[in-house]
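User: Mind token order:
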Amino acid sequence: MSTVSEVKVGDRLPDVVLKEGQADYGKPKEVNLRELLAGKKVAIFAVPGAFTPGCSKSHLPSFISAMNELKMKGIETVICTATNDAFVMEAWGRTSGGADAGIRFLADDSGELCTALGLSMETGCLVRSKRYSLVAED
């Protein structure tokens, strides 16, 4: 369990690098979160694991169906993170329809983001992210 206090309104998001999978198993691209957020209003949601039943049947589809509403509220980018690797995240985004809906799937493969936000959980074999969503505005 994380010993860092959970993120709260007004906190600055951590300076972390996430990974974005590429089509056809290309080398994942590193994405600096703060650079991605610079000057934008962004929605970020995290799930404990890609392709898991609850995340695939409920959490992700709720964001896919809310994309137009989020855009109308000024959200410029929607990001999904999980502690899976970039290849798994790319495959989940592609096969779920999430990438086609405009959601970016970024791997928090080391758990650095969820840990820094105080939203990590130990599962016995690896760190997983708790389920959360937030809006970040720079």
